[in-house]
Amino acid sequence: MELEKETGRSRTAVLKRFGFRKETQECRMSLVSHLEEFRKRLVACIICFFAAVLICLGQAAWLTERLMEKAQGFQFVYIAPTELVLSYVRLALTGGVSLACPVMLYQIWGFIRPGLTRRERQSCFVILTFGMLLFLIGAAFAFEIVLPITLLFFAGMNAGQTISPMVSIESYISFVSTTLVTFGIVFELPVVVIMFTRIGLLNPAMLRKNRKYVILAVFVLAAFITPPDVTSQILVAFPMLFLFEISLLLSRILFRKRLKREMQVNGQEAGDV
């Protein structure tokens, strides 16, 4: 008897968390339908992910060849019997996440969309789309520009030496994956600034105040990952500085809109009084 009462209280608490005041048949059906939709979308994400992994696994050898073409002057080896196979699997998992990511985001969007207001839907859609696009641009920038320059610099350090640059394929794929993901995340700076400005954690004054430190950090990073010539450093640093300036501009626009909206709300409250 006590167990049944405790179960009833727990069920009522769960329903209240979903916005239901009273436990009715309609409430229970609505909660069940939400859980069923969540299950279907989760299954769709899992199926899509494994399908993408299988596709990438079938092309793993070709993908590895394309990655090795970026590393001129290096010789690649695998030092364990299973290393090459595990490298293919790792590459397939990374590629599977990349290919399935749009579908996963679509499923997440489809699940949360009905519970959002019109304005929240617009904001979330813009942030998700803009964020995914910036991540792809950052990864492409790293693959086409940063990676060749960095690898050429590391290979050139061995000029005239007796040590041969032999790299295990597993460590190379790990290095490439880390570089692509890192620059993809760095290129998310405008999205982060937009979100923090909207919730009041950032404002244009804070960004302007720290601009000189950002510029210094960008050029230090560019000097670290590129050969010691000005052209390569500027080639890497300029896109990141451009992203920061775009972030500052977006922060200024959003901050002004937020101030204007707060002034309107305060004016309405003063009028009501």
Automatic annotation (TrEMBL):
Output the Pfam families linked to this UniProt entry: TatC
* Predominant place of localization: membrane
Q: Where in the cell is the protein located?
A: Cell membrane; Membrane
Q: Which InterPro entries is this protein grouped with?
A: TatC
Question: What are the record keywords, sorted?
Answer: Cell membrane, Membrane, Protein transport, Translocation, Transmembrane, Transmembrane helix, Transport
Per its UniProt record, what PANTHER family does this chain match?
Answer: SEC-INDEPENDENT PROTEIN TRANSLOCASE PROTEIN TATC (PTHR30371), SEC-INDEPENDENT PROTEIN TRANSLOCASE PROTEIN TATC, CHLOROPLASTIC-RELATED (PTHR30371:SF0)
Q: Which NCBIfam families match?
A: tatC (TIGR00945)
Q: How does it assemble?
A: Forms a complex with TatA.
Write down what this protein is called: Sec-independent protein translocase protein TatC
Which organism does this record belong to?
Answer: Clostridium symbiosum (strain WAL-14163)
Its taxonomic path starts at: Bacteria, Bacillati, Bacillota, Clostridia, Lachnospirales
The gene it comes from is: tatC
